Fold this sequence. Notes:
Layout: H1 2-29
Amino acid sequence: MQRLLSNMGHTDGLFFKLLHYAFSMNQIAI
């Protein structure tokens, strides 16, 4: 999964950064 994110990061870096941030917040909330 990380490899996939890294490969796509150069095209949609901001989107994945936000997605990762939201996921992190969700993990903390749980």
